[in-house]
Amino acid sequence: MPQSDPTTELQQSLAERILVLDGAMGTTIRTYGLGESDARGERFAGNEKDLLNNGDILSITRPEVIGDIHKRFYDAGSDICETNTFSATGIAQSEFFVEDPREKGGRKDPEFFQKILENAFLNDLAWEMNVESSRLCRKWADNIGSDTGRKRYVAGAIGPLTVSLTNSPDANDSSFRVVTFDQVLAAYKYQVRALIEGGCDILMIETIFDSLNAKAAAVAVREVFDEDGGNLPVIISAAVGLGGETMISAQKTEALWNAFAHIKPLAIGLNCSLGPDLMRPHLEELSNCAATAVSCYPNAGLPNPLAPTGFDLEPHHMEEFMAEFAKAGLLNLAGGCCGNTPEHVAAIARGVANHAPRVIPMVR
User: Fold this and answer.
1) What is the rounded distance in angstroms from the CA atom of residue 174 to the CA atom of residue 130?
2) pLDDT (tens digit per residue) in 58-77
3) CA distances for 37 relative to 56, 149, 243, angstroms
4) Cα separation values, 36 from 43, 73, 82, Å
5) Alpha-carbon gap, residue 76 to 23, rounded angstroms
6) Core-most of 143, 187, 222, 310, by most CB within 10 Å?
7) Could you read off the pLDDT of 279-312 as tens digits, one per residue?
8) 3-state DSSP assignment of residue 120
9) pLDDT, tens digit, 9 for 90 and up, residues 8-36
10) Burial tier of 30 (Cβ tally within 10 Å: 0-12, 13-18, 19+)
11) Chain segment 324-361, per-residue pLDDT in tens
């Protein structure tokens, strides 16, 4: 179970050094050479849709693989690893287990997603994914922490979903949304409760491409705390485009901070979407305005299908970039997103080890 006050402990650590996050779960899964039958296991052997791209299902069908990945990231120097729950909601899992009405001339709309929210199979699956993923990560955090004498933490990963609350997919009806705020809120509350049940220390609302989706996640976290008691630190992390805007809701980094400052996050940051070179100016802008810790875990460059990891940058490149960010005083937490393996994270850890953390401004 999570400790009574991880927030205070983490704040103290962040004032002393740059903490290291983990790398890319999906990228690292690829290195195990798993096939469709591995993802399905016996339990989902008869599923009508392919499951190989459903990385979260592996916490159930191949838990030894996911556990080994957590172990490798902690061994590489990660202080915080994320649970394998990026898409562990009924809404996201419906992509793999429910027939898409658009294939027969229909459409996805709030009526469709209400049925998803009431689907007992998807609810049970989402709960199990989050609880088991959190427990897997917790196990290795505790094991490696005990072996090394350095506390390790578990961040419950709350992904952006496969739907948008901001934009309409209907060119003829700008008011149409495929899903409602309350439906997204309900899915996230279910996920948050399961992550907490599994024993995470932190809740990480990450890879935000739609700030309204993330708002629903933040409300879900707050309502769960208010309804169930307890409190865990929250990290907010956005994926931004070349102009520094969240890719659907188009909030720039300063606007992102202003939108989430009221929840008093442990940290706010940027991840995914860009390599460190293209992310730097946006990280700098965020660092200048955020009155809390700042995190950064960029992709290992831009996608390249010919590269071993699918991305161009090798470990020594990430070490150099992240060391430069740290030297410039931009970082409190550093890690890697797509393309970053345990070897990349070990290099990032080396790169930031001898640099002081960014000075966190005092909140007035």
Assistant:
1) 34
2) 999 999 999 999 999 999 99
3) 15, 39, 41
4) 13, 25, 24
5) 10
6) 187
7) 999 999 999 999 999 999 999 998 988 888 889 9
8) helix
9) 999 999 999 999 999 999 999 999 999 99
10) middle
11) 999 999 999 999 999 999 999 999 999 999 999 999 98
What is the full DSSP assignment across 260-273?
A: HGGG--SEEEEESS
What does the domain layout of the chain look like in residue ranges? 6-352
**Residues 265 and 292: beta-carbon distance below 8 Å:** yes
Greatest Cα pair distance, the chain, in angstroms, is 60
Residue type, position 24, single letter: A
Cβ-based neighbours of 171, under 8 Å, separated by 6 or more: none
7 to 63, 74, 258: CA distances (angstroms): 29, 20, 21
* Residue range 244-249: mean pLDDT, rounded: 85
CATH 3.50.50.60 fits domain 6-352: no
Counted residue by residue, the chain has a size of: 364
Backbone angles phi, psi at 341, to 5 degrees: -90, 175
d(CA 138, CA 67): 10
Q: How far apart are the first and last CA of the chain?
A: 34
**d(C-alpha 346, C-alpha 335), whole Å:** 9
The reported pLDDT for the residue numbered 6 is 83
